[in-house]
Specification:
The structure is a homodimer. Chain A contains six helices and two strands. The first copy, chain A, is mainly alpha-helical. Chain A has two domains: about 40 residues, no CATH class; about 90 residues, Winged helix-like DNA-binding domain superfamily/Winged helix DNA-binding domain (Arc Repressor Mutant, subunit A, Orthogonal Bundle), CATH 1.10.10.10. Chain A has a two-stranded antiparallel ribbon. Chains A and B meet through helix 1, helix 5 and helix 6 of A and helix 1, helix 5 and helix 6 of B. The first copy, chain A, binds a DNA duplex (23 and 23 nucleotides) through helix 3 and helix 4.
Chain lengths: ~160, ~160
DNA sequence: TATTGTTATACTCTATAACTATA
DNA sequence: TATAGTTATAGAGTATAACAATA
């Protein structure tokens, strides 16, 4: 076949889907980063960490944060240090394990995160307002299917 | 309404869609970066730059690369310098404008990019193989719709 | 010994702004 | 004056690895 001669063209659909998804994600992400910086003088990882804590009043351990944020432990330490210094989160003791902490939002952190989250949501809603509600749901379901399969098939290292 | 009292819950569908899309993109992107490093000792921006040049035998100017890669000019200079030093791309003169260059793949760069692109495509195909062909197309169309609207509605700065 | 978290370090990627050369 | 590209710099963001304290 001649198609194969071009080198990489047997599954161009998945590839162009990926490129579109990557571009769109970068576009939205870049805007979110800019606005977080301009309006709240913060960064996406800091916002992400606080978002992880929002629905966990008892907090999360460092390694739980590390796993959820998909970054290594040392980085979580650094981000947490910053937020602690600003009084937005705190390290609380874990009963029965003196090595670990529960990191949780302070009241001030909770208030400030609420402000940010409200704005953040409006940016995201604006980004996707080109879709009808049913299309949002379809997109959500399809991406869930991809993620599901991706998680079930760990790193085949091609 | 009580729903609104939670602070940010009027359009949670768009928000959870975004979070899923962001997570999935980061997952795939992280894997691609790791494999590019391990198998080809290169990075995603370098791969991206070469990919931009692949279908342009005459090359692209620096500012065109900058726009397509969505990064500022100084960064393109740095990445290009690396690739030139390795003999993978070259700066060619532009007739009639001695300020500008056309950056293009060398024969060696073209060969090497072919190898990388083949592998890259296999990783991407594997990432999306949980979808039926029709679903890939649906996803592609829906993301196109989002992107279209997003581009038409530049930075409302909420 | 293994685990939790911290520290130290280095590298990639990025933006900003000042700069040079040419248009 | 404006544009193409470079240089210099600073700061996110990340991973790796060695380390201390506790389990």
């Amino acid at each position: 076949m001649d198609m194969e001669a071009r080198g990489h063209s047997e599954h161009p659909e998945a590839l162009r889907l990926w490129l579109r998804m990557l571009t769109l994600t970068q576009l939205v992400e870049k805007q979110v980063r800019t606005q977080l910086r301009e309006q709240f003088d913060t960064t996406l990882p800091r916002f992400d960490l606080m978002a992880q804590l929002e629905r966990k009043p008892d907090g999360l351990k460092m390694n739980e944060l590390s796993r959820r944020m998909m970054v290594t432990g040392g980085n979580v330490t650094g981000i947490t240090d910053q937020l602690v210094a600003e009084g937005l989160v705190e390290r609380a003791l874990v009963e029965g394990d003196r090595r670990a902490y529960r990191v949780r939002l302070t009241p001030r952190g909770r208030t400030q995160f609420g402000d940010m989250a409200r704005q953040h949501e409006s940016w995201i809603v604006a980004a996707f307002e080109g879709l009808a509600p049913g299309e949002v749901e379809t997109l959500y379901q399809l991406l869930g299917k991809v993620k599901q399969h991706y998680n079930d098939t760990p790193l085949e290292t091609a």
